[in-house]
Amino acid sequence: MYTVGQLSKLTGVSVRTLHYYEKLGLLEPDRDTGNQYRSYSENEILRLQKIAVLKQMHFKLSEIKVILDNGEVAHQDTAVWSRALTQQMVFVKQEQEKLRAVEHLLFSTLYAMRATEQVNIEEMLGFIRELEQPSQGPQLRQQAFTPEELEVLPINDVSNPLAMEWSDILRRVSGLLAEPPDSEASQQLAASIIEYADKMFGGDEQLIQKYWEYITPQEGQAARVYGMTTEVMQYMDTIIRIYLGEDHK
Question: How do residues 178-212 score in pLDDT, each as one tens digit?
């Protein structure tokens, strides 16, 4: 058993905060019948540990109380502590996945702005819709690619500067769609695309082809990857074929 002062010193949680948690019903320390001093058991320490984790995950105190009240009472038993810590790890993982999804959406919006050099309200509306009603994009990618392949895909790591570099290439593509595919500008672009693909995929031509086929929209479908419409992909395919000497038209 620990006094409120001891618990505060050992955990770094102020006495005032511990009293507030008690007032809210988050903690229920024992009271000495004589002097009314508070004593905190292992059960209360486990609850305090849960509170600390859930606060870091930005749960409100009212929400934390509901979670704690629905949980099991702790005993001096490692199995109880193990279950509690395991449950918290599940919570943390779920929050991490949500934050990664938000990070990817933020990156995608910046990516689109950089590719078009303008703010697209439809993209912003899509951003909000994706937050409220997440698409099946991640699941589809996991079905199409192995975990090792997903690690190197440009859509996987939003912190990879090469992923943002592709938006610059897309901007160049949009400005050259009316150019003859064998023009000097188009062929310089083809060289840039090939160089980029080699850097991004580490020279793995099989993975490049697999990814290209994955992002190619089916007839009547919208682009699977921002900017990669049927028109854009046909143009890119043509200029690359000419660059590689596979198309002499």
Answer: 999 999 999 999 999 999 988 888 888 889 889 88
Tokens of 67: 């979670």
- How would you classify the pairing of strands 2-3 and 30-31? unpaired
Rounded Cα distance, 155 and 214, in Å: 12
Based on the number of CB atoms within 10 Å of its own CB, is 153 exposed (0-12), middle (13-18) or buried (19 or more)?
A: buried
- Classify 60 in phi/psi space as left (phi over 0), alpha (psi -120 to 50) or beta: beta
- The CA-based diameter of the chain, rounded to the nearest angstrom, is 98
CA distances from 163 to 21, 62, 196, 215 (A): 46, 41, 10, 15
Segment 77-91, tens digit of pLDDT: 576 667 777 877 888
156 three-class SS: coil
